[in-house]
Amino acid sequence: MATRTAEAAAQDRTPVGGGNQEEGTPIPFQERYLKAYRSSILARQLEEKLASLYRAGKIVGGVYMGRGQESFSASLASCLDRERHDIFGPLIRDMAGRLAFGEPLLDAPRTYFGSAEGPMHGRDGNVHRGRPREGMPAMISHLGSMISVVCGMLLARKFRGQAGAVGASCIGDGGTSTGACHEALNLAGVEKLPLVLAVANNHYAYSTPCSRQYACGDLVERAAGYGFTGHSVDGTDLAACLEVFDRAVGAARAGEGPQMVVGSLLRLSGHGEHDDSSYITQEDRDAPYGRDCLRVARAQLLEKGWASESELERWDHEITDEVDAAIATAQKESGPDPLKESWHALATERLNEGFYDE
Amino acid sequence: MSITYLEAIREAQAKALAEDPRVYIYGQDVGRFGGAFKATKNLAEEYPGRVIDAPISEDAMIGTAIGAAIEGMRPIVEMQFADFSSIAFNQIINQAATHYWRTGVPCPFVVRLPSGGNEGSGPFHSQCMESLYSHYPGLVVLTPATVEDAYTMLLEALTIDDPVIYCEHKFLYYHLKADGLPNSSLPIGKARVARAGVHATLVTYSAMLHESLRAARELEQEGWDIEVVDLRSARPIDTDTILASVARTGRLLCVGESFPWGGLTAEVVARICAEGFHLLDAPPLRLNAKDTPIPYHPNLWRSHRPTSSSISATLRKLLRA
Ligand SMILES: Cc1ncc(C[n+]2csc(CCOP(=O)(O)OP(=O)(O)O)c2C)c(N)n1
Ligand SMILES: [Mg+2]
Predict the structure, then answer these.
(1) Nearest residue, CB atoms, A155 vs list B62, B64, B235
(2) What tens digit of pLDDT does each residue of B41-79 get?
(3) How far apart are CA B127 and CA A263, in angstroms?
(4) What's chain B's average pLDDT?
(5) Which of residues 57-116 of B touch A (CB under 8 A)?
(6) What residues of A are in contact with residue B138 (Cβ under 8 Å)?
(7) Which of A179, A295, A356, B67 is the most exposed place for a label (fewest CB within 10 A)?
(8) Which of B178, B204, B226 marks a domain boundary?
């Protein structure tokens, strides 16, 4: 391990959600930081590749990027522990969190290309992917509707007596306006579930600014109304995000009830790659929350002495190779064959009606 | 021992809770209160922690069931009234119904929909939703018409690896009685010939089975022998049993309590036309509720849904054709 600063050592003493306090040693802050950073770089590079493939007409539908939100997303996932059956319920801009949680690198390109080898087998695409049996529910498009699914997964753990598992669910500023979000948060409060809701307030929902989305001062004010503990964080600051999520995950794990973390940041891309995001004002771009979180993280790494310029560069290159290899693999794979597709929607084979079966 | 349709639903849930640790019940007022209709009476006491009062959040109730189901639980969600499942429509059709197909991971749970009306229930406490839900691939939709089916189909629903919409009819809750509960029954997906006949086939389900049987008895006085088929499940439809019946009778009337535009009765008629046109001696007919929201006043309500007399009248028309 590289030289450790006093600050990092201090971090280690705070309750660590991502660690295994009873059974082992907590994961040191530095280790989690590096994991989150690495996942963020991986996500950034992967999405940039996917975006250029989209522009070249090699990907159908759309490409949705988490640019500017990687640190927030990855730090949440880096505080989760799959050995404790934690859950990570991502949304559109959580490539970095997915990778940090352990989604195989191939899942995203395979799903974008519709590869038959991918987790969705070409039946669903882009960000609509998951591994529900491994604590990663597969998001549907309808915003707000994944939060209660994570609640149900937590409820199942409660029924089975699997104490200590935490479920994280991600949402944007716009998604908080849905009835589904309200219902799920209220339910999580009533059931006192160990839920951590990460609200990525990137100041826009597609083109809609927050002033047309909600009338309260800050979304974190809603936490109290749902019986959640609220936390605010600068979503562009990886160290700060890790600290806050660590606290939130630790509190949820310790039985202190649901937690809401609101991160302030900016989407540094279009809503999707079809969108030039010309509606994002210069004022927003120049605001503190408009910073590129990866530049902030690089500066922090250098400052903490956890990496040198040349190491950072080497990591970038390593990751480029990894991404290129994954894309090349997925791109070579065939898509699903409509003639071999069963066209049956039920798991109970005998109840499928078999319209158009031979 | 005499047992009602409602008690059969309660007994099925009690048996499921007793025998399957994966089962729990989530719904408004289902706990100590025992449910708005008492379908979960005493279950919270008998199975502590497994019969749980839900907040008035139908979307989140179903979302939660989905999450628990993919983790291996077998939730039963009670909607207080079928009508309120519209709030959960998104979770049911977009999340639950697509889950297995998208991910390969089954999403098994049962939503109980207290369906259909009574006098005075009005537009928002009377709806029959089977046609709507049956439209979506990925759902199983059940419409039990008898005490026996209410019991066995609910138990079987809890063994199915898919989301099941269980439409229980409120009009039958207290009216319908049986001498006891069966151990076995036709499997889900099979229709039942409830009354054998030769002159026409009347396909129906749920509360309309009883109106239809009354109509068949009325027509018997006039010398007609009507075969009545109880669909039992709206999704899947047992087309073979209907075709076999139409092969015997040459005439088809399909009666349902949901709205007339499209829906289950239209689907039955379309299938018989496509697969059994040569069997038909007359154009097939369908009879549904009227094409308006469901009215409040008993005078209007009684004319809004099909009854034995409107079914008899339609049968006469079919037999004259
Ligand atoms: C219920 C629903 N309505 C509309 C949409 C279309 N839609 C997709 S993303 C989006 C904006 C979401 O904004 P926000 O929640 O702030 O997330 P962000 O895109 O900023 O990350 C909209 C309107 C949707 N997916 N779901
Ligand atoms: Mg937003």
Answers:
(1) B64
(2) 999 999 999 999 999 999 999 999 999 999 999 999 999
(3) 44
(4) 97
(5) 57-73, 75, 87, 90-91, 94-95, 97-106, 108
(6) 345-346
(7) A356
(8) B178
Residue B143 in any domain: the answer is: yes
β strands within chain B, DSSP E? 3-4, 23-27, 51-53, 74-78, 110-115, 140-142, 164-169, 177-178, 192-195, 200-204, 226-230, 233-235, 252-255, 285-287
Q: Is the domain of B242 the same as that of B297?
A: yes
Identify the residue among B22, B26, B59 best suited for mutation to test binding to A, counting A beta carbons within 10 A and taking the highest.
Answer: B59
Q: What is the pTM of this model?
A: 0.95
What does the pLDDT look like over A129-158, one tens digit per residue?
999 999 999 999 999 999 999 999 999 999
Does A6 score more than 50 pLDDT? Answer: no
CA of A335 to the centre of ligand 1 (A): 28
| Reported ipTM | 0.96
Residue B216's SS3 state is: helix
- Whether A119 and chain B come into contact, CB under 8 Å, resolves to yes
Question: Which of A124, A192, A351, A356 should one mutate to test binding to chain B, selecting the residue with the greatest count of B CBs within 10 A?
Answer: A351
The sign one gets for the Cα dihedral B129, B132, B138, B140 is positive
Task: Write the CATH number for B54.
Answer: 3.40.50.970
Residue-level pLDDT at A17 = 39
Q: Indicate whether B27 belongs to any domain.
A: yes
A6-18+27-334: CATH architecture: 3-Layer(aba) Sandwich (3.40)
**Nearest CB to B71 within list A153, A180, A352:** A153
Query: Rounded distance, CA A162 to CA A184, Å?
Result: 21
Q: Domain count for chain B, please give it.
A: 2
Structural contact between residues A171 and A182, judged by C-beta atoms closer than 8 angstroms: no
**Cα(A142) to centroid(ligand 2), Å:** 14
How large is the average pLDDT for residues A192-213? 98
